[in-house]
Amino acid sequence: MTEANKIAGVLLAGGLARRMGGGDKCLRPLAGEPILTHVLRRVRSQVGPLMLNAAGDPARFSEFNLPVAPDVIESYAGPLAGILTGMEWAAEKAPECAWLASFATDAPFLPEDLVARMARAIAAEGADMACAASKGRAHPVFALWPVALRGALRQAMVEEEIRKVDAWTGRYKLATVEFAAEPNDPFFNANRPEDLAEAERLMRLKD
User: Domains along the chain?
Assistant: First the structure.
């Protein structure tokens, strides 16, 4: 489809983290580093321009040297709002990028070939966009989106109040890319304190 440096990226950190007790899940420590550090280690080589979607004071993310932008749709509107934020940011700040890859920031083991495989699937299937899957379950926030659809997405969110990712992607041809879940699911996410403990265990096994 295109080189990695012509694909923009958005790191979705706008969730409320209720199951983790609130706060920024991606800043919780894992193996001595914030979860976001582990995510960035896997993401940076897969995309070019990269931004973080998060509400509140951006200074708390200053150590990561990333542009930070809150949702462009007022009130908490879920991950679709973060994707729209990334699309509109890419259109303004990275006009050379026709595609936007989105990533959750609580998945420290995400695949390092995620974007490349999604791009190949779009090309092979003549699809409009792509998302990842494992164990037969789709992970719609790990996806590759055409920036050109930002106007259509904004209209769907503002005028139709669409909030579910699947409700919007169902209007387009979506390529679903299955990733192996053995020995561990690469989309394991740290939603709860016990998940974070499991992530620590998995990190030790990798060392």
Answer: 4-206 (3.90.550.10)
Helices 150-158 and 79-93 cross at an angle (nearest 10°) of: 140
- Cα separations in angstroms, 144 against 4, 35, 69, 127, 197: 12, 22, 19, 11, 30
CA 190 to chain CA mean position, Å: 14
Q: What is the pLDDT of residues 8-65, one digit of tens each?
A: 999 999 755 444 445 688 999 999 999 999 999 999 999 999 999 999 999 999 999 9
Q: Tokens 């561990």 correspond to what residue?
A: 184
The string of DSSP codes covering the chain is ---GGGEEEEEE-----GGGTSS-GGGSEETTEEHHHHHHHHHGGG-SSEEEE--S-GGGGGGG---EE--SSSS---HHHHHHHHHHHHHHH-TT--EEEEEESS-TT--TTHHHHHHHHHHHHT-SEEEEEETTEEEEEEEEEEGGGHHHHHHHHHTS----HHHHHTTS-EEEEEE--SSS-TT----SHHHHHHHHHHHHHH-
Q: How far is CA 124 from the centre of its chain?
A: 22
Residue matched to tokens 């990334």:
86
Q: Whole-angstrom Cα distance, residue 66 to residue 62?
A: 7
The predicted model scores a pTM of 0.93
